Amino acid sequence: MSKKFYFKCKTCGEEIQGFKEWFANGQKCPKCGDNKIDTIYNTPKERIKELINKDAKPESLWHYFDFLPLEHKENIVTDGEGVAPIERWAFFEDYAKRKYNLNLEVYINRNDKSFATGTFKDKGGAVAASVLKENGVKEYVVASTGNTAAAFAHYLAKAGISCSIFMPGDAFRDSMSHISAYGQKVFHVQGDYAYAKKVAADYAKKHNILMTGGNLDPLRLEAKKTQVFEMMRLLGKIPDVYIQALSGGTGPFSVEKAFKDFEELNIFGKLPRFLLSQGDRCAPMADAWKKAKENNYPEGWEKDYPIYENPEVLIPTIATGNPGMYPLMGPLVKRSGGEIFEVSEDLALDMIRLVAYERVIKIGPASAAGLLGFFEALKRGLIKDGESVFINMGESANRAYHYMHQAAYTISEVHSVDDCEHFDREKNRKIVWEPFENY
């Protein structure tokens, strides 16, 4: 029996005593068979106040060990994940003031600086590897469009766990190469993400191997809720608005989980408004949300969503054509007073160029989609004067080198010095800003 935490079925209230029982029952409630659970900690809630103190110097998300689902510290697998800096981006603030006369505070969570794989998903990978190690799991199956796959491959390799990863046909070759370099197995499924998940599930069943539990998996949800703790530690508050690119939605779900865990302490304040962006070439949640909003959210609206098979996209890492989480995500966004909308995938390259010019960092296309969400939210009038905005920037360019090749715009082929025009970097400012001045 777990002394530190236990699970409680959200459907029937059955208590499940830790991961051994959870895994033994196929990651389902032994009483009703549902897979939606709450992780409840026996740690005194007041302890969180010490952990989020601004003077704390955490080395990883394991600073919050008392509120993570691992029993023993000797099983921790870490690479310093979960404490990425949160930066204030003045050039975003200046744009909002110049174009919309809004005075904003804009904070960017620099998950691209996560040492392991340069992604927000490193949090979940670290907790998953640690829990699997603690419970003697030797094999694991993951279905992913890219970033989760890379993170789990990395951390499970560190833990000595074999990871079989199933990726859809349009997955970036760079992602698959990274995973293969760790010695983990990649199955490149010729089909979309929904089909890749089916093949992964069939493989897990055939070989009796544990498989990742999806967006509500406590291994991922509990890890990612630490982003709320980091907001409090680094900013001293929870911003008014939370923006990120949306695929399945573990990020927003994890924010709500942190708020629920410590609701009685009232230290986090009000849940932020979730403004979530999807690439326009595969935006089933955005399309469902638009329809529901236009019809004043009729009864059962959250169950009405389209399914897009084999979508042709430019950003496959956030392309989930079958949005199974929408019945939960839609109501969460509505409760927060937020919105789900699409952004142009064609503008991802422009955003990559802009950020590289203004901040001298290289971001991946999924991060670009999240940052585009800020510009789209401004255009739609979804952010108010005086508000603070948190943008969860999910990835670096580590596994999208072809995007960086396409983003290059200052290369000239020359044969002699006579072909070389005098260079002034400042002249490029107009080039990188032009798509957004006319947004």
How does this model look, in words?
Helix 13 crosses helix 16 (about 430-435). The chain has about 450 residues and is an alpha/beta fold. The chain folds into 3 domains: about 1-40; about 45-80 and about 120-220, Rossmann fold (3-Layer(aba) Sandwich); about 85-115 and about 225-405, Rossmann fold. It is built from 16 helices and 13 strands.
Helix and strand topology:
Layout: E1 5-9, E2 15-16, H1 19-24, E3 37-41, H2 47-51, E4 86-88, H3 90-100, E5 105-110, H4 122-134, E6 139-143, H5 147-158, E7 162-167, H6 173-181, E8 185-188, H7 193-207, E9 210-211, H8 218-224, H9 226-235, E10 241-245, H10 250-261, E11 273-279, H11 284-294, H12 326-336, E12 339-343, H13 348-359, H14 365-379, E13 388-393, H15 401-407, H16 428-437
Parallel strand pairs: 5-13, 6-7, 6-9, 7-8, 10-11, 10-13, 11-12
Antiparallel strand pairs: 1-2, 1-3, 4-5
For the biggest sheet, the summary is: 6 strands, mixed
Provide the CATH topology of the largest domain.
Rossmann fold
Separation, N- and C-terminal Cα atoms: 56 Å
- Which architecture name of the largest domain does CATH use? 3-Layer(aba) Sandwich
Number of domains: 3
- Sequence of strands across the biggest β-sheet: 4-5-13-10-11-12
Rg measurement, Å: 22 Å
User: How does the helix and strand content classify structurally?
Assistant: alpha/beta
Number of strands: 13
Could you give the order of the helices and strands?
EEHEHEHEHEHEHEHEHHEHEHHEHHEHH
Strand content: 5-15%
pLDDT under 50 segments (min length 5)? none
- Count up the helices: 16
Fraction of helical residues? 25-40%
- Assign an overall shape: globular
Overall pLDDT score: 95
CATH class of the largest domain: Alpha Beta
